[in-house]
């Protein structure tokens, strides 16, 4: 009987323990508190998921209240939260906010910035989203008291809400365990009932509530973007990768079964067909658009040069990366270059609605300040502004090489010189890089909006955009004006010419964009053009474009702990290893910078196969945004801006660059830091010279190598003028410099 009693007692105690365990498991804080505790500890959802052997998406769902953890994970999760609550108690009404975590949380959605148009990131009431606090910063940003007040000016999610797009601009569609899921921004996951691609498009337009509001009044809302993973491709009958033939063609063949499905469902594809960035649409009915864009990473939609490893990220992380980019720049419309160009049009649509006429009707009219809806007739282009093979040059002999007096050649610097004996006695070569240099060059720049007018013997007007044929060979850099009336003497042999990309002094008349000629005047020399192509219809077309990309870049760098008002030494510390603090956000910064350069490059897009022959028009010429003159003006101004800083630095310090590559400048210095040669006084930089900081136009540390390394590399390749700026970042020289 005793044995039976003991056994019964143990069973009773076990049952009670089970009840107590169940009570403990049920004792979880509210979803919002779960998120607060994790962020207070500086933990990511992925870290918690790994510890609990769960999926990251599951942790996100627990924090939004969409789902609840089940045993045995529930007890472990409760134990974690209990421990975090003991270390990070909830602040009282009078208590200051908790300190920022040392590593920024991989927040699950974009935080809208104070930019021209707000971005939608608001979730439906039944599925609240989680968005990181706009003041979250890594430890680097807290080294200086009062870090970055501009970050506190972020607009709230509620202000950016648009009920039509309450689930964000895009979704990453994945298939797992037979279920199709759409991972949206903000951690939201939607069940997708569609069993075919046509039905997926229908579901997106009717149910998913994806998209983005227009960026300007006369513009159009952004179409929803679906990113298809390899699992989703298989689910919808599409190949995981393209064949070599399909890759070269950039699309699936028209006879592919999925393309036929779309045709049967009365959906259309754009001229680019079903490729990595396919657009599926039906003709618009009035103001209603019916269009969905696809992005297919495994078909190389996300170029690794610009998007890094984004295409290899899990669905939720990829949704975060693309969502941050979409909210701060715009929903991707293709490559970063295509998106950069589309952003220009989105901010300056070609047409707008007129005022009501006598019958109260409105009509589509030209939108002032835009490039219009019609491309410039290829035969109306100034011959000096177009690349070789353009139709306006069809009568040019086939192998004729146009010289400076025939061709506008405004390009970025690629210049270097041998080091002096004095420079060789120094220990270090220090490279500094101009942040978003071409974006800064576009800021405030007056560019032509329409066709050019040919003028003979014009009087130069620095405010008039155009191309000018003028002889600048008389400009002597050994004596120039720095400031309004101050003449200074310099060693011209150690300076590049501001008028040519290779830094050579001009030998006669050549075509230049307005900023280049204006700089010759600024240096104190007279200019007398013999002819010009000027654009009297002009404006600051790129200002809004610059501002949106600047704000996107600064906001993302601030999230990485690099604020815009850091002191010089603190800035260098903050920049050290900033990408490792949040690799996903680091991808966004790279994509933003690629959007700047790529968008400007698209202004002079060259033929891309298509059976083109010299003298024939190519597809890009049919766009109003094919504007090589605007590209030339931006590059001209960027190069001039850099030369101006170099001259001011040389005049004040006697130091000269030894190499320049685009926006990177290398100096010999006694120490390894930019602060070892930049003339700061009491924390203030040389007026008009180089200034450390993250804003576009300011500079950051690109890299440092030994002087002996530079001499050894040049000796190894028997190239005294090898451009060391190309290799200053990591010192790796894999092959002879070829100027590419």
Gist?
The chain has 740 residues and is an alpha+beta fold.
Q: What is the number of E strands?
A: 22
Spatial shape:
globular
Low-pLDDT sequence parts: 1-6, 93-159
Main sheet: strands, sense, barrel: 7 strands, mixed
| Alpha-carbon Rg, integer | 30 Å
CA-CA gap between termini = 93 Å
The level of helicity is 25-40%
In percent, how much strand structure appears in the residues? 5-15%
Average per-residue pLDDT, rounded, comes to: 86
Class computed from helices, strands and strand pairing: alpha+beta
State the helix count: 21
Strand order of the largest sheet: 3-2-1-4-7-6-5
Would you give an account of this structure?
The chain is α+β, with helices and mostly antiparallel strands and 740 residues long. The protein contains 21 helices and 22 strands. Strands 3-2-1-4-7-6-5 form a 7-stranded mixed β-sheet. The protein has a 5-stranded antiparallel β-sheet with strand order 10-20-21-11-22. Helix 15 (514-522) packs parallel to helix 20 and helix 16 packs antiparallel against helix 19. The chain starts with a helix and ends in a 24-residue tail after the last helix. Mean pLDDT is 86; it is low at 1-6 and 93-159.
């Amino acid at each position: 009987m005793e044995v039976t009693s003991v056994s019964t007692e143990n069973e009773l105690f076990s049952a009670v323990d089970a009840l107590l365990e169940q009570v403990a498991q049920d004792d979880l804080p509210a979803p919002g508190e779960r998120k607060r505790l994790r962020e207070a500890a500086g933990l990511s959802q992925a870290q918690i998921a790994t510890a609990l052997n769960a999926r990251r998406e599951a942790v996100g769902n627990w924090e939004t209240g969409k789902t609840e953890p089940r045993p045995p994970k529930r007890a472990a999760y409760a134990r974690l939260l209990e421990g975090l609550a003991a270390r990070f108690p909830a602040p009282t009404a009078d208590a200051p906010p908790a300190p920022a975590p040392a590593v920024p949380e991989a927040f699950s959605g974009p935080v809208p910035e104070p930019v021209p148009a707000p971005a939608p990131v608001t979730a439906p009431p039944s599925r609240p989203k989680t968005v990181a606090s706009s003041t979250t910063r890594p430890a680097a940003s807290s080294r200086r008291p009062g870090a970055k007040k501009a970050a506190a000016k972020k607009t709230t999610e509620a202000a950016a809400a648009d009920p039509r797009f309450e689930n964000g601009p895009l979704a990453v569609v994945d298939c797992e365990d037979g279920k199709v899921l759409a991972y949206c921004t903000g951690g939201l996951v939607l069940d997708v009932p569609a069993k075919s691609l046509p039905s997926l498009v229908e579901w997106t337009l009717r149910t998913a509530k994806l998209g983005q509001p227009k960026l300007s009044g006369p513009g159009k809302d952004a179409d929803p973007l679906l990113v298809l993973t390899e699992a989703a491709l298989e689910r919808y009958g599409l190949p995981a990768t393209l064949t070599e033939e399909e890759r070269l063609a950039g699309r699936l063949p028209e006879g592919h079964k999925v393309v036929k499905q779309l045709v049967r469902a009365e959906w259309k594809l754009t001229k680019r067909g079903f490729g990595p960035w396919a657009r599926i649409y039906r003709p618009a009915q009035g103001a209603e658009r019916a269009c969905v864009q696809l992005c297919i990473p495994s078909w190389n939609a996300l170029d690794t040069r610009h998007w890094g490893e984004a295409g290899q990220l899990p669905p939720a992380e990829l949704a975060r990366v693309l969502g941050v980019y979409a909210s701060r720049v715009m929903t991707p419309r293709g490559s970063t270059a295509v998106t950069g160009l589309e952003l220009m049009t989105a901010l300056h649509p070609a047409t707008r609605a007129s005022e009501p006429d006598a019958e109260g009707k409105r009509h589509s009219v030209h939108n002032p300040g835009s490039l219009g809806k019609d491309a410039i007739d290829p035969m109306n282009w100034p011959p000096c502004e177009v690349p070789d093979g353009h139709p306006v040059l069809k009568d040019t002999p086939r192998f004729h090489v146009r010289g400076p007096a025939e061709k506008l050649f405004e390009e970025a610097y690629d210049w270097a010189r041998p080091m002096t004996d004095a420079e060789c006695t120094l220990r270090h070569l220090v490279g500094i890089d101009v942040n978003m240099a071409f974006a800064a060059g576009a800021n405030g720049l007056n560019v032509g909006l329409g066709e050019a007018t040919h003028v003979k013997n014009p009087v130069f007007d620095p405010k008039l955009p155009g191309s000018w044929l003028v002889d600048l060979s008389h400009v002597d850099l050994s004596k120039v004006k720095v400031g309004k009336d101050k003449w200074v003497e310099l060693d011209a042999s150690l300076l590049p010419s501001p008028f040519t990309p290779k830094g050579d002094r001009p030998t006669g008349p050549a075509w230049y964009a307005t900023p280049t000629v204006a700089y010759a005047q600024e240096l104190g020399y007279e200019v007398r053009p013999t002819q010009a192509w000027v654009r009297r219809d002009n404006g600051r077309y790129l200002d809004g474009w610059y501002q949106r990309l600047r704000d996107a870049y600064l906001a993302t760098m601030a999230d990485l702990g690099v604020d815009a008002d850091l002191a010089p030494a603190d800035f260098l510390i903050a920049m050290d290893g900033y990408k490792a603090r949040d690799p996903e956000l680091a991808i966004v910064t790279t994509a933003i910078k690629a959007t700047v350069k790529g968008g400007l490059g698209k202004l002079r897009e060259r033929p891309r196969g298509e059976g083109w022959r010299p003298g024939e028009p190519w597809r890009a010429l049919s766009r109003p945004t094919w504007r090589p003159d605007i590209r030339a003006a931006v590059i001209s101004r960027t190069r001039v801006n850099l030369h101006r800083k170099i001259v001011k630095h040389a005049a004040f310090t006697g130091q000269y660059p030894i190499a320049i590559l685009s926006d990177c400048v290398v100096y010999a210095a006694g120490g390894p830091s930019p602060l070892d040669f930049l003339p700061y006084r009491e924390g203030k930089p040389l007026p008009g010279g180089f200034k450390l900081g993250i804003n576009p136009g300011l500079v950051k540390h690109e890299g440092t190598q030994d002087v002996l390394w530079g001499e050894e590399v040049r000796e190894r390749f028997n190239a005294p003028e090898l451009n060391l700026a190309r290799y200053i970042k990591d010192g790796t020289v894999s092959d002879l410099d070829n100027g590419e």
